[in-house]
Specification:
Layout (H helix, E strand, L loop, with lengths): L38 H5 L6 H16 L13
């Protein structure tokens, strides 16, 4: 989130997950906003923290361009 002064603020850390060694340091949850979710999350084979970099890239692009990259894909509800 960006506050009213333009600073980034962390929110909603209640959805974070600890990656466990017995799962190969992967998680299988599907939580988040589809516009910012990496493709690995949708394929159901598990993912790790690298998907956070995908989401960060999407957010940076949206901040610079003012447009969401994948808005046309998600016109219909999931």
């Amino acid at each position: 989130m960006i506050d009213n002064k333009g600073y980034m603020t962390l929110i909603d850390l209640g959805t974070c997950t600890f990656l466990k060694k017995e799962n190969g340091y992967r998680t299988f949850t599907m939580i988040g906003t589809p516009h910012y979710m990496a493709p690995e999350i949708f394929n159901g084979r598990g993912y790790n923290f690298s998907t956070d970099f995908w989401s960060l890239g999407i957010i940076i692009n949206e901040l610079f361009t003012g447009n969401c990259l994948f808005v046309m894909i998600w016109k219909t509800p999931m």
